[in-house]
Q: What sequence folds into this?
């Protein structure tokens, strides 16, 4: 089984060298059709266009061919995080304070594992969220299994004139 965290750390310098930030690396799909999904963004716009995806895809394809960190065949998919993006880095919670998000925890806190509401920013390594129930929640970043922004009119307006059609992506098949 491939250590995706290790692959992420290995490819991040390649993405950074092109002037982009790495948002997420994941292996998706089943064993018969795996895809290495790489999400990246321009620091100034938080999006990518097709030319950006192509540049990253070419660089990573060359690096993956040379270093071969993943066993077997897989596809490489390079995409933007899109408007209703995943929140994967601590800084994302500060950057997107004031916007609605859905957060899932690794383990339940009391009887809850899911939280939705408005991001209130950070207190060190703790994400602050005002829930839809009006209560304030403090969720340790390390306890979060997944989180994403929720598509709202406010978010669409804030990201204009960026595309609301979702992520552009390049998919490439890598054979061994």
A:
């Amino acid at each position: 089984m491939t250590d995706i965290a290790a692959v992420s750390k290995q490819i991040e310098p390649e993405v950074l060298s092109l002037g982009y930030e790495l948002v997420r690396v994941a292996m998706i799909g089943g064993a018969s059709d795996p895809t290495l999904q790489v999400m990246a963004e321009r620091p100034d716009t938080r999006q990518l266009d097709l030319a950006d995806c192509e540049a990253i895809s070419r660089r990573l394809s060359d690096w993956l061919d040379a270093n071969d960190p993943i066993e077997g065949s897989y596809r490489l998919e390079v995409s933007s995080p899109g408007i209703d993006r995943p929140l994967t880095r601590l800084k994302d919670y500060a950057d997107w304070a004031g916007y609605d998000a859905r957060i899932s925890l690794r383990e339940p806190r009391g009887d809850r594992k899911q939280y939705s509401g408005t991001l209130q920013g950070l207190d060190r390594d703790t994400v602050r969220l005002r829930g839809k129930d009006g209560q304030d929640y403090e969720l340790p970043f390390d306890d979060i299994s997944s989180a994403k922004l929720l598509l709202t009119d406010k978010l669409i307006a804030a990201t204009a004139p960026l595309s609301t059609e979702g992520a552009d992506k390049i998919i490439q098949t890598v054979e061994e």
Summary: Confidence is low (pLDDT under 50) at residues 164-168. The first helix runs from residue 4 to 17. The chain has two domains: 4-83+161-174, 90-150. DSSP finds four helices and nine strands in the chain.
